[in-house]
Design a protein that fits this description.
175 residues; alpha/beta; Rossmann fold; 3-stranded antiparallel sheet; 22% helix; 39% strand; binds inosinic acid; binds magnesium ion
Length: 175
């Protein structure tokens, strides 16, 4: 990242406001049903931790790790499950929590994969929705922040596994 500059894009306060809003929306939409909240590792780990605390409902958490093949900044839709869910989701209300939907390939594949397990409902919650970059149809039921182009890091998001620990989100700009 030596040749690049980091520019603050979304402050931790702004992110926190969006996460609170998402928590309220999810709470409102799921009265009385126990939710299965699925964290897609690694990028979602901080978002997930904040989101579940913003939801006022009975829920259980589970974790999945997927790797999508492709270049550093572009995925392909060939998804390898590196760690699967431990909970059986058949007949349950499931929300997939993702960090970013970019081309949509990763989540499209993952969504179809989980749908085959016959959940009662299957929804998508993403922190960042890069709508204009979509190559396949994926609609987030809950979206924190919609943005156009740009590669971002921080608040769980990485560049080459680094910068996940930053509290704010920065856009990477060529120097
Ligand atoms: P998609 O398959 O193109 O939708 O890729 C989605 C995945 O790519 C996300 O879950 C992220 O892990 C990663 N990704 C996409 N854009 C960014 C970014 O701007 N910063 C960090 N990771 C990103
Ligand atoms: Mg990811």
């Amino acid at each position: 990242m030596n040749q690049n500059q980091l520019k603050l894009l979304y402050s931790k306060d702004y992110i926190a406001e969006q996460v609170q809003r998402l928590g309220k929306e999810i709470t409102r939409d799921h009265p009385g049903s126990e939710l299965v909240m699925v964290c897609i590792l690694k990028g979602s780990f901080l978002f997930f931790a904040d989101l579940v605390r913003a939801i006022d409902a009975t829920l259980v958490v589970d974790f999945m790790r997927v790797a999508s093949y492709g270049s550093e900044t572009q995925t392909s839709g060939i998804v390898e499950v590196r760690k699967d869910l431990e909970i059986a989701i058949a007949g349950r209300d499931v929300i997939i929590v993702e960090d970013i939907i970019d081309s949509g390939h990763t989540l499209r594949t993952l969504y179809n994969m989980l749908l085959l397990r016959n959940p009662r409902s299957l929804k998508i919650c993403t922190l960042i929705d890069k709508r204009s970059r979509r190559e396949v149809v994926v609609e987030a039921d809950y979206a924190g922040i919609t943005m156009d182009d740009g590669f971002i890091i921080g608040y769980g998001l990485d560049f080459d596994e680094r910068y996940r620990n930053l509290a704010d989100i920065f856009v990477v700009e060529p120097a």
